[in-house]
Specification:
The chain is of the alpha/beta class. It has three helices and four strands; from the N terminus they run βαβββαα.
């Protein structure tokens, strides 16, 4: 059983972003954490390299990403049941 369940949230970066996926999420996974990456890229849910990706759908513009996606992201984060 992992020590903690960690959620990494992003509405502006893709799920395979070097800084997020490779440097942060993979490092946390190798340290024994269960990592959930919540993204907004419309590629669907998947598990890659032991990282569980949740997709909340792509925004139709900067205004929607800033004003509406935070609520969608909040709901997805609650559903992931993350500790951190």
């Amino acid at each position: 059983m992992p020590a903690y369940r960690v959620a990494h949230l992003t509405t502006a970066h893709g799920r395979k972003d070097i800084r997020i996926f490779h440097k942060e999420c993979l490092t946390l996974t190798s340290a024994g954490y269960e990592v959930h990456e919540i993204v907004a890229d419309s590629l669907g849910a998947e598990t890659a390299d032991s990282i569980i990706n949740h997709d909340i759908g792509r925004s139709r513009g900067k205004i929607q990403r800033i004003l509406l996606k935070p609520f969608t992201m909040y709901r997805a984060t609650l559903r992931s049941n993350a500790d951190i």
